[in-house]
Sequence to fold (147 residues):
Amino acid sequence: MYLWDANILKAFADAGADGHANVLAHAQRVGWEHLALPVPVCAEVLEGRLKYLHGAFQRGPTHYPPAFTRLEATLQLVTQFPIVSFDDAALTILQQRSLFLQPIGRTDRLMASIALAGGHVLVTRNVAHFRFISNLRFENWIDDPCP
Fold:
């Protein structure tokens, strides 16, 4: 399974985004049935939408419709894909501190743990965040041309 980071999901969702065509080409190459989202990515994108909605609540009712529209669009986007859970196997990997000796953000650690636990390939533009993690397979579908 190929697990998408939020930056890949955003490039996929926005036809005008840098790398959109490349992401589509790679997805066609591997097959749409082999794509999934790690649950921390879903949490990250939904958290962003909820913050936007909270801001709309503070600004007033005229700001509600676009905020809810964006939230609905994000929910529809993430539910197009299978979601890969953070399970006990991922927790065991996360707790192996020797894998995460370099500074790395929490969401990146969680995604890497899920990918390692399931033998998945992590698809991200932020390859520098993951280069030091042993045995983690990753690809950059935004910048790397599709073979």
Observations:
- Residues 2-42+83-139 form a domain with the Rossmann fold fold (CATH 3.40.50.1010).
